[in-house]
Structure formats: C-alpha cells, structure tokens
Design goal:
Strands 1, 2, 3, 4, 5, 6, 7, 8, 9, 10, 11, 25, 26 and 27 form a 14-stranded mixed sheet that branches. The longest helix has 19 residues. It contains eleven helices and 27 strands. The radius of gyration is 25 Å and the shape is globular. It is 23% helix and 33% strand. It folds into two domains: 338 residues, Rossmann fold (3-Layer(aba) Sandwich), CATH 3.40.50; 134 residues, Galactose-binding domain-like (Jelly Rolls). A hairpin with a 2-residue loop joins strand 22 and strand 23. Helix 3 crosses helix 11. By secondary structure, it is an alpha+beta fold.
C-alpha cells in the first residue's frame, strides 16, 4: 500500500469540504481511513483507491490512519485553507531570497501552521495516468524550514493567519521560466498554438528527459571549454594584464570567461563576514584570498555569500570572482547592492575593480527548458492534483510570454477554464501583475518594453472578463533591473488585503 506523495505528516487538507485520499494497493480490496471517531471506507479497483472523507472543521495536529494491506499513520495533519500557488519564479521565490528587505520580519516569524508541499514536475510526456506526485514532504514556516517556503505565499497568508488563526497549506507547483503554454491542456495547445508538434516529437519514456539531459551536458561542455587558466592560481592573486572595470556595470564583447578583482583592508580580528556582489551575468565562482566562498550557476539570483572568518586576515585581502558570460554582454547589473560586511560593518564594493579576460568563446545557445514545453506542467502538476480540494488559486506568471504577448489573455482564460473543468468546480483566482522590469542586456534600457507592458495591461484587465478573479497591482514595487523583486512582504500585504475582501 502506498499513498500519493502529497499525503504525509503535517499535511493540510481543505476544511469544510470533502477530501480525496488516494494511492495504490495491489493486495487489498478495501481501504479504511480513521480520523478520531470518524471512519470512512472505500474500494480498491485495479490496484488503485480514492477514498472520499467527509467535511471536517478547522483542526490542528491530529492523526489520520490509513489501513489496507498495510497501515500508515499520518501525524500532525491539519484542516484549514489550502491554496495552489502557481506560475513561475516570482511565485516560487523562497523566503531566503528576501532577507535583504525583510530580515526583521523573517527573524520574528514562527508559523507552524503555515505549511507547504512542493510539487516538482516529471520530465517526460507519457500517459496521463502514469504521472505521480512526488513524496517531497510538508515544511512549515518555522525557523530552520521557513527559508524554502514561497515568500509571496508566506507574506500573504501570515497576515491572514494572524486574524483567522486557522491552518494554511500551500501546494507550490510554480516553476521558474514557465510559459503559459506549458500550463495549458493538450487540447487547448493543439487548438490555439503552433507548438503541438513538440508533444508528438518528444512523446515517450526517456525522450524529453533525454533531450534535457543532453542540453545539460552540452552546457557543461561549453563551460568547461571556457577554462584556460589554473583557477587556484588566478583566485589567489591578481595576474598581470588586468584593466580597470567599474562595478556595477554591464559591458559588451566579453563572451566566455573573465576574472574580477577587488582588494580590501581589515584592521581587526574577524568574527563574522558576508559579501553581497549584486546580480552577475551569467554564472560565477567567488573567492576570498583563494578560498571559494560561493557559486551561482545562472544570472538572476543576487550573490549573497557567507564567508568563513578564517579566510580573512588583518591587512590587505583579495576578492576574486570568476565570471562566465554566455552571450555578448556580461558583468554586474546596476542598481544592486555591492558590499562586504565584517563584524556587522558594511564596506561598499562599488567603484573600480580590475578585470582580466580568461578566454573568448562563441556564444552559448541554450536549448528549450522543460517548463517551456507545451502542456507539460498541465500534465505533471495540474492533472495530478485534480482530486485535491482547494480554497483558491494564486497565479503569478507572464515574464516568459512578454516577448510575444499577443493572445496571452485568450490562452490564460482557456488555461484556467480547463483547470476548472478538470477540478469540476470554479475557484477564486488571484492573479498578480508583473512588476516593472528592464533586461539589463537589452539594447534600450530606458523604458519597460512594450511586450512587458502589454502583459501587465492584460493582467489588470482579466477580472473584467473572468468571474471570481482579482488582480494584485504590482508594477510599482519592482527594481528596474531586478526580475525578482525582493519586496515580497509589501506584495503579500496587498494580496492579503484583496483576499480578505474577495474571499474572507
């Protein structure tokens, strides 16, 4: 006997409605579920079961026993309000990425009854019934676990929890970089887009995942080919032939690998140290006095690295950053923080650094990401939870459709209607407007692109054409060259206000 991966200790089920408990058991004919004095039974058919338990009021930390050919006891489950958090990386962004602007709020947070289940997608097209929910477990918004909770979800529902004092559960299926087409049903993809051929071309166990694995290998080979010097040698001292480089700043003609250097002085014993070197294009490895302190494999995350105090000594010290640039421009994105903090005191790192080109390379042309394949997220992350009960849906997406915004609303509307058909009910839907953003590598960095504006306008207008829908306005709380605004607490406060009026 095995339960679907979403069912585990500390899970949250939707209060005041029926809930499905489902899984597989090829040795039993009946399943019995016990919650306190409440007992529910159901049949096993062809090795599968789906037992519907009756509505339960809000409850904290109770046990559920599932009995078939074996016995499973789920501990500390709750009944409260469950929301699906969907879209792309701005919904996915974890609490830890917001510490710069919300450190005090995070430090003071201890919410054991705000919990999250992370639904990650499978990597192949196959028969719908063959997709499985991952057994990723439930985490709580408490010290030691809160860092991986959706920041937007947490900051929104902590405010509602403070008033209602009921459990909240998130099913986080958002995926960074995902297109709206990836969330659409296959029927709608075939009817409304020219991407259906990708489903046919990559259908079958191991076909799509094989393509993705090869793209990863190709990227690894390209990056390995950028190595032209001994990194241990270049990380420990400034080589000859460097040129001045003003940080922050984006420069052209540097595709391949390069090194950046900055010296700083210390006149005391170091007890704690931290460095923030903004957002770098594209991948980096950072060093202090030849010791690696952190690495990031892609552009968007701000580089925030804790430093072992033993790496720093009194006198002159050296920061070295090896940077891999995949396209024609690279460097450090403007309007981000650049500093080193030693024993609680910050020293700015903005200004003149030294730069040394390691190797010029041809530009790396990335393949299509999993989350840009049509209908793949509908199949793996929507169909698999069709029998899960929710209070509502929060959606934050559109960045990956901004280059081609035409028809976005029609696709989004079709997507949501297919979800409701699958769930056999309509649900309150909260969408979020994109924050303003300019790609620092674009030719014109003076204004938000028209495609981005188009998506924002379509999002704001969606409630006019879709019932039971509200939009959280957000364009004014972004940082112009930061696609992932860390101001999620401010955004969550807006969303909570709308949810309270719209649902509560």
């Amino acid at each position: 006997m095995k339960l679907a991966g979403i069912f585990g200790d500390r899970m949250v089920l939707q209060r005041d409605t029926e809930n499905h408990i489902f899984g597989v058991d090829d040795k039993a004919s009946r399943i019995k579920i016990t919650i306190g004095e409440q007992v529910t039974e159901g049949d096993v058919t062809d090795g599968r079961f789906d037992v519907v338990i009756p509505p339960h009021e809000a409850a904290f930390d109770i046990d559920m026993t599932v009995e078939g050919s074996g016995k499973i006891v789920l501990k500390d489950i709750c009944f409260g309000d469950v929301y699906m958090l969907s879209g792309q990386s701005n919904m996915e962004l974890p609490v830890i990425r917001t510490t710069d602007v919300s450190a005090d709020e995070i430090a003071a947070s201890d919410y054991p009854y705000i919990r999250q289940y992370r639904l990650t997608p499978e990597r192949d097209y196959k028969a719908d019934e063959d997709y499985k929910l991952p057994a990723s477990g439930w985490v709580s918004a408490v010290p030691g676990e809160i860092d991986e909770i959706s920041a937007y979800g947490f900051y929104t529902f902590k405010r509602i929890y403070d008033k209602l004092k009921i459990p909240f559960g998130f099913i986080l299926n958002a995926q960074g970089g995902s297109t709206v087409e990836a969330w659409m049903s296959e029927e709608d993809v075939r009817r409304m887009t020219d991407e259906a051929h990708l489903i046919d071309e990559y259908y079958g166990e191991g076909v799509l995942s094989g393509y993705l694995d090869e793209q990863d290998r190709r990227c690894a080979r390209w990056r390995q080919d950028t190595v032209a010097v001994d990194p241990e040698e270049y990380a420990a001292s400034i080589p000859e032939g460097t040129v001045p480089y003003e940080l922050p700043g984006v420069i052209g003609g540097v595709t391949g690998s390069l090194w950046l250097y900055k010296e700083f002085d210390v006149d005391e014993d170091v007890e704690d140290a931290f460095i923030y070197i903004g957002v770098l294009i594209d991948a980096d490895v950072a060093y202090i006095n030849g010791h690696e302190i952190g690495r990031t494999e892609y552009q968007y995350p701000p580089r925030k690295y804790n430093i072992d105090p033993s790496f720093i000594h009194k006198g002159k010290n050296l920061i070295a950053v090896r940077l891999i640039v995949e396209r024609a421009t690279g460097g450090a994105v403007p309007y981000h923080q650049f500093y080193i903090r030693i024993n609680g005191r910050k020293t700015s790192l903005e200004g003149t650094w030294q730069m040394k080109i390691e190797k010029h390379s041809d530009a790396f042309v990335a393949g299509r990401m999993l989350v840009c394949f049509p209908s793949i997220l509908y199949k793996t992350s929507i169909q698999t939870i069709r029998n899960v009960s929710f209070k509502g849906i929060m959606w934050y997406q559109g960045e990956s459709n901004a280059e081609h915004p035409e028809g976005y609303t029609d696709k989004f509307k079709a997507m949501i209607e297919s979800w409701f058909d699958l769930f056999q009910k309509r649900l309150p839907l909260i969408i979020t407007e994109l924050t303003d953003y300019i790609d620092p590598q674009s030719e014109d960095t003076s204004k938000v692109p028209e495609g981005w504006r188009s998506i924002q306008d379509q999002q704001l207008n969606t409630p006019d054409i879709m019932p039971d829908t509200a939009c959280v306005p957000a364009r004014d709380i972004g940082d112009m060259f930061e696609i992932h605004t860390p101001r999620k607490a401010e955004l969550g406060a807006r969303a909570a206000e709308i949810l309270e009026e719209f649902i509560y």
